[in-house]
Amino acid sequence: MNIKTEITRFLGTLDRSPCTIFTYRNAxxxxxxxxxxEDAELNTETYxxxxxxxxxxxxxxQRVYTTAVRKFYAFCKSGNPAELKxxxxxxxxxxxxxxxxFNREAVEKVIEYCSSLNGDPSSSSRIKLExxxxxxxxLTLVDTGLRISEACALKRSDIDWMEQRAIIIGKGDKxxxxxxxxxxxxxxxxxxxxxxxxxPNSRTPLGSQPIFARHDIRASKKIRPITSGGMWKxxxxxxxxxxxxxxxxxxxxxxxxxxxxxxxxxxxLKLSQELARHESITTTNRYAHFGSETDAAxxxxxxxx
Length: 305
Known about the structure:
By secondary structure, the protein is mainly alpha-helical.
């Protein structure tokens, strides 16, 4: 059987919209690519090889693609329908609940190091600004719970400095109130003051300027917002400077740290959910193993003096 020829025949029999046929064609092209051979046998193993290529696809795309290929199998009168169905269900099964786990010690070491970044007076203005920016950025992440993209999108006019809060457009295009700690505000003001001294004549209105800007050579003296990728690259360098292996800290770990600290301080999942802006308390509940009553009970049983 020539797979390419049979796919052409199959698509020609479909009485569906052009959009659906286009999607089926894409699905079958991916299937053909996954099995590699034009005369490969259409069996459960080749179908599983195709399923393995769908892991990065969205659930809706997975559904359409698997439907297209299973219909192609039926058209060719190949494969065992029951086995194909079982393989599909196993591959697309929703992942069960996962407990949040991160290297808290490594994160705290990075926070401590970044808190000490004040910019060496003997350094160039660019290096000094980068140090003050990275200090302010890390303290902002760990004390607000902002995602990296949300922090990079902040403008100066977004922050109410007297109230130490900001209204942002977060995940899902939803407005949310973010609160800033004293130390994060202090770090932000120190960074912005240093920037105003170096870049006093910017044509960009003050309120429209990004909170976190680029200070690399290519940015010149213009105030340009830094991207999430650029900011994460800078933070990874700080992680190494702190003596921490890069693989021990992920960018989202700073947000994990924020949620963990709020839960440990109050033991109130609902409060942590609100501060973290989790849509469902189920998400926040993944942090409930930190400092739980179970830990206290275990310590009393096995570690009591």
